[in-house]
Amino acid sequence: MKIAVLSGKGGTGKTTVSINLAKILEISYVDCDVEEPNGFIFMNPKITSSFEVEVEYPVIDKNLCNLCSACVNVCEFSALASTGKEIVVFEKLCHDCGACKMVCKSNALTYQKRSIGKIESGVGNDITCMRGILDVGEPMAVPVIRTLLESLDNNPGLIDCPPGTSCNVVSALRFADAAILVTEPSAFGFHDLQMAVKLVQQYQMPYGIIINKDDNQNNMIKQFCKSDQIPLLGLIPYKMEAAKLYSNGRMLVEEESYQLLFQTIADKVKEVFSWN
Q1: Chain segment 30-78, per-residue pLDDT in tens
Q2: How many CB atoms lie within 10 A of CB 154?
Q3: E strand or H helix at 190
């Protein structure tokens, strides 16, 4: 079973939940937050494998191009433009769909590859760890996320998704069997949680909610879970102790009280998701 951990907004504690729950469940940890993959700070794996992620982009042969602009007109991503004297390629906007090459009747268009990031894997805290890293300045994370998740085996794993509900998250959810939504008891947290709930419902997968920074009150998140009959997988209290552990690069489960807390959450996860 692959479990996606996501949040409607950043800063809710998604990665904190992911790394500690992966440790307790003894399953692989996969960091898909490729623009800021900080899970390895805590897992501290020894990297044993690394390879680049490449995408294709069009190259125009000026000697063959007749400036018909067919490639420009068919591109839905504005990766090609005509100046009247040449066809200009904006390679970072290219989605590698192949449409431009299909419509080029003068055979002036070919493809070349370029690197946009890399995939790293290793072992840390006695579990397999993998992450994708998007190169600085690259605008599209999806190819890195897709390559990372396509390289997974069939063993159970925990997928640390990007924050929000964008196409980056959708790309990660396609590889998941269940979802954990991490939120916080605030107006912003509740608003973005509702968007995340609608997203996972579209995939018709089992899901549950973990409240981080819980205020020990009957807050709006708890009321929402009760009214909509959404499983509440666990509560992580709002304590200075957690912040100190985090700021020192330590996992919460290194402390006995948090180890017991995440074990309880893990048991609930297995119950709700019919763990095999």
Answers
A1: 999 999 999 999 999 999 999 999 999 999 999 999 999 999 999 999 9
A2: 7
A3: helix 187-202
Give the CATH fold of the 2-44+125-272 domain: Rossmann fold (3.40.50)
Fold annotation for 55-114: Alpha-Beta Plaits (3.30.70)
Please give the Cα distance from 243 to 92 (Å, whole number): 38
Provide the greatest CA pair distance for the chain.
Answer: 71
Amino acid at 77: F
Domain residue spans of the chain: 2-44+125-272, 55-114
Residue 183 vs residues 38, 160, 213, 238: alpha-carbon distances, Å: 19, 14, 9, 12
Dist CA 239 CA 214 (whole Å):
9
**In which band, very low, low, confident or very high, does the pLDDT at 8 lie, cut at 50, 70 and 90?**
confident
Report how far apart the first and last C-alpha atoms of the chain are (Å, whole number): 7
Going by C-alpha positions, the residue among 202, 130, 196 that lies closest to residue 169 is: 196
Q: What is the pLDDT of residues 147-181, one digit of tens each?
A: 999 998 888 899 999 999 999 999 999 999 999 99
CA distance 30 to 162: 11
Q: Which backbone phi and psi does 95 adopt, to 5 degrees?
A: -100, 10
DSSP 8-class letter at 92: G
pLDDT recorded at residue 275: 67
